[in-house]
Amino acid sequence: MTEQLLTISSFARLVGLTPSALRFYDDCGLLQPAEVDEGNGYRYYSPEQEARATMLRDLREIDLPLADVRVVLDSGPLAAAEVIRTHLRSIELRAEAARQAAARILAGGADSATSVTLGGAELASAIRQVSPSAATSASKFPALTCVLLEIGPDEVKLVATDRYRLSVRQLHPKAFSGTGCSVLLPATSLTELIRTLAAEPEVKIDVTADGVAIGSAVLTPAAGEYPAYQAILDGLDAPTTRLFVNRLALLATLETVTGDLVLMTTPVGLTVAGSEQEIEVDAICTGTPVRVGFDAMLLGSALSASVGPDVLLEIGAVDRPVVVRSADQGTFTTLVMPIRLDA
Predict the structure, then answer these.
(1) What percent of the chain has pLDDT over 70?
(2) Strands across the sheet containing 35-36
(3) pTM of the full predicted structure?
(4) Which among 61, 78, 101 is the end of a domain?
(5) How many helices (H) and strands (E) in the chain?
(6) Whether pLDDT at 343 is above 60
């Protein structure tokens, strides 16, 4: 090991990126480490990579899509400048549209056994991301209409699944006392609290024998056994295909498709096929080309819950759950079950 090489944590501090972001950029080939320890898989970076890393950081600050980031990093200055100017014009147009929409809105008048404290906006965001994955019918599995809240001293998890998708969001407590616990809370009751929680700097959750107090609201936990979601996550196949795509562009494409769709990856891009049309979408595809089917609504829900301009889809097999994650939020994971395609 060369003495000048930096660990991923040290390099992350040097360039102003998180270690999870560096791992993400390694996966998509934008910023690969100078060396990887074959024994433990640890990544090491060279100080000479600082300029590329800081440029990458700045490009992501302006929400430049990954495909365009690659052009800026690897092309000449003229091509890079044109990409950035085009992106800035797009930002200005969106900002103007947002100002006009805001103007229209304004013109229209618009004693606990366990205790944990979380950021209000962060908790509201977690509920908003996770709750759509809960089942809407309690006919056979009532527990699936709930969000599983797992509370511990170092981490709080919110989990929801309807057996076709699974969402997990991790939060870091500001304070904790008592004993770690898990409770099932109705997803509909939690979503009703989103607006109130988002307005609070901090929210305290108290779990007692009388119920679960979230701020000023008191919810009654549901009975039932929740699926062993961690076993599902641990049992995922190693991805053989990775697909990096602009989240909003893929969402816009899905809006033109009803029912089932097929994603077809090639070394040069992505094709989204519906029952009546095929649409090419700019994407970075690595690994084995695949043809995988989805329910358009389920995949769209997973994309809507994610954050940031780009998402990564990790595919291990066409009949196994597909992982959806983003570079901008390593604490949120969504699994979407593909559909079976006719031969």
Answers:
(1) 96
(2) 6-7, 43-45, 35-36
(3) 0.69
(4) 61
(5) 11, 21
(6) no
Whether 222 and 252 map to the same domain: the answer is no
d(CA 241, CA 283): 13
Q: Could you tell me the two tokens for 100?
A: 């006009």
Domain count within the chain:
3
Parent domain of 119: 114-230
Dist CA 62 CA 67 (whole Å): 14
Query: Which residue carries 């700045």 as its tokens?
Result: 58
Q: Which own/partner pairs from 137-145 qualify as long-range (CB within 8 Å, at least 24 positions apart)?
A: 141/224, 142/222, 142/224, 143/184, 143/222, 143/224, 143/225, 143/226, 143/227, 144/227, 145/186, 145/187, 145/188, 145/222
- State how far the Cα of 67 lies from the Cα of 291, in Å rounded to an integer: 21
3 state SS of 48: helix
305-336 per-position pLDDT tens digit: 988 889 999 999 988 999 999 877 788 999 99
Q: What is the pLDDT of residues 222-240, one digit of tens each?
A: 988 898 999 888 888 899 9
Angle in degrees, CA 27, 24, 72, rounded to 5: 85
Q: Tokens representing 199?
A: 């307005």
Strand boundaries in 4-95, DSSP class E: 6-7, 35-36, 43-45
Whether pLDDT at 112 is above 50: no
Residues 124 and 223 in one domain: yes
